[in-house]
Structures are given as structure tokens and as C-alpha cells.
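Holo prediction. Input below; ligand is zinc ion.
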Amino acid sequence: MAIELLLKGGTVVTEGGVVQADVGIDREKIVALTAPGETIPAKRVVDIGGLHLLPGLIDMHSHHREPGYTHKEDLITATACCAAGGVTVTVGMPNVSPSPTTAEILRDMFALYDQKAIVDYNVNPAGTVLEEIPRMAAMGILAYKVFMVVDTGRSYPHMPGIGVHDHGKLLAIFQEVQKTGLPIMIHPHDQALMDQIEQGYWAEGKRDFRAYAQAYAAHDGVIWDVAVGVLLRLQQAADVRLHLLHLQTVGCVEMLRAAKAQGRPVSAEVNPWALWLGNDWSNIERLGSYALSYYVAPHHSEAIWKALLDGTADIIATDHAPHLKEEKEPGWTDGWKAHTGTPSAQRYLSLLLTDVSAGRISLERAVEIVSLQPAKLFGLYPRKGAIRVGADADLVAVDLDREHVITNEEVLSKCGWTPYAGRKVRGVPVHTLVRGQFVFENGSVVGRPGYGRLASPVNAKSHERK
Ligand SMILES: [Zn+2]
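Structure of the complex:
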């Protein structure tokens, strides 16, 4: 009996190391990993000689903008970026409208993804309504998300209903989430500190993008450090699985390292902007609000790199956050008027592979932080996250030697720009497969909207969506 597809001649990054192997695929799964020369009958054979085959990327943090903000991005453009970027599972965030704070709203969101997603998906709903927390767990989610941001001055990006700063309420949420066994992701923030700091800048007439960047990073990252200190202490009180978003200071890295040394169930993500964009002030001078996300001073960025290499930081997730140019332009004179965030899903693999090429990180560790560890932390392993027999055939074939200059024209996101334009990368995705089907082939998105499927934890009690 011939299998459906054989990927022949590639170099395969497996959990056990990098090997020459052919990969056999049948009915969505990897069914064979065979040494070169061994023949295995297949209906279709694709030669990937010269390419490296990696497990598809799992992006746990992406702002897809639908429903509610489809002028910025929609699920088709967002998941087209994913296909082109080697991302085979993308997980949306709750700052959409209506925000998924209840099982009903989440069900409607899943229905939208079901119609439109090109790659597999899930959504991290807001865990802000206590009685909805167990109901949403039963729907096959991977994690909850809460913003500590309660900035009442802006309706976007942190709208009411999904932000909680009150420590008592956070503790109650943690205790409820703990019963589900799922992790809770938190965007660390302290609005009282931010208010105090920004008033100081404004009193001096400083409101531009520089002031905004510096205010968030003031006092060597006090806003982030205070918030993470609170979160880690509440984590200990509730014994909940805590996943910290936006790791970006030396202080946060040290607190995380200490908590891990105590064996506590804590983890953290690093975002592309902390590694390749906001860590260089000249990018902020050149691009203004288009480079913000956040400013990460070089000594902080160094600490984050170290944390990624030594395992203190667990994963890279994109924080992909497209906005229109009209929403960024006001930042030149008023940084507080620009929407915060940068698009990155389409090219973060290339940015990471460029560092692999430069010897900064090994290919094996790079694959761990973008594929294997997200799968393990969020319950998708061993069905996803690794190239092994029996796993879903979620794969990305990359040319590690191909150089490419990133352009705004290639951007598939609806926003139509990237802060990485003009940058030369080394290492580009050539093909992406989701459950054995090409969604990106020879540099073109060929996936069909609606092909993507809900990626639920392997041990979920119920994958049902009523
Ligand atoms: Zn985000």
C-alpha cells in the first residue's frame, strides 16, 4: 500500500538530533522516518534535498484582530502570514471585540476560525469571569490570558473586561484556573506606576515616541519587575501554572530563574521585538512607534538571550500585532496616541535562523523554543511539536543558506508594513505543511481558508464544541 506523500532527501531536525531521513506522510500523520535509500512506496514524492525539515512552529501569542478589528487584520490574512512563516498552530489573543470572556463568545470565535483559518489554531480566552473559567477549559483551550493593563485612557489595545490589576481578583482568578490544570498567561503591568512615571514626562512636555518608549522602560524596568514580583507571589499562593508574557528585564529573568529553581510551575515567553527590534535604540529613532512594542535596553536584551539559551526562558511567541499606518503615525508627536505592537508572524523564523547562521544559537535549541517547548508546555505534545512517527505532519522546510532582504511588499498581513523591512536574513521557509497538506509551497501560500482545525490539548477531557 502506497502512502500519500514522501518528503525525500531532507535533513530532519528530530528530538534525538539532526539526521538525514525521508519522511513518510499518510492521513495527516507522520508514518515513517526512513534512512536515505530505503524505499517506501508513495503516491507523491517531493524532493526536499538541500532543505532542513523542522517541526511546524507553534505560536502561542498572536493578535489576529478578528472579530472587531478587521481593518487591521483578519483571520485569513493572519493565518496566511503563519503559513508563509512556518507557523502551523497559531493561538489568538482575547483583545478583540467582543472579547472572549465567556464560553458563548469563545464558541463564536472558534466558529470564525473554523471557517477562515489556513493553519491549525486555538484562542487564549480572557480568564476574567470566574464562572466561565471551567466552562472554557471544557472547550479544549490551551491557556487563559489576563492583561494586568487597566489603562482607562485608551480603548485599544487593552479594552475593558480583559484587564485585571486588583491583586485580590487576580488571586481569585488564579485559584479558579488552578482547578482546570491549565496555565494562565499574564501581560505584567502596573498602571499606578505607569501613571506616576508618564505624568513626569508629560510635565516636561515630553510626549513623543521616545518619551513613550522611555516611560515604559523607566527606572530600569520597574513597571515590569514590580508586576512580575506580584505575579510570582500570587502564583505561589494559588499553585497555578503561570506563564509570563513579554519577558524583557534582567530583574524578571532573575525572579523567574529563582522560581524555577524552587521547582514551581512557571514559564515565560520572549517576543521577537525584544531580540531583534526594540533592543536597538537606533531602530526606535528611525521607525518611531513603528518599532514599538517596547524598548528593551541592551543589557536587558543580553539577559534575555542568555535566558533563552540556558532554559530560563522557555519559548518564543510572536506577539504579532498589526496596526494600520494611520494608527502608528500619531506616535511621532504623541507616543500615547499610537497603537502599540508590531507584526512579526511571517518573518520571525527567518530572524531566528539568521542567528542560527551566525552561531548565536544552535538549530536544535531554536527548534525547541519555537516548536517543541510550546507543544510541551501547552499540552499539544506528542501530537504536535516534534518530527516523530505518529505525530501530526506539521512541518516547515527551510533553506538555511538562502539570503533574503525583507520588504514591505511581501507582507501578507493586512497592515501592509513590517518594522523589519530592509533587513537581510539568512534562512527562509520554502514549504509549510499542516497535517500533511501543503499550505505554503515553493514560496507561495496555497492553503485553503477553513482547512485549519482546533488544536486542543492531547489529554483534554473534551474537544467538543457545542
Ligand atoms: Zn500581545
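The domain at 3-53+392-445 is CATH 2.30.40.10 (Urease, subunit C; domain 1). That is the main takeaway for now.
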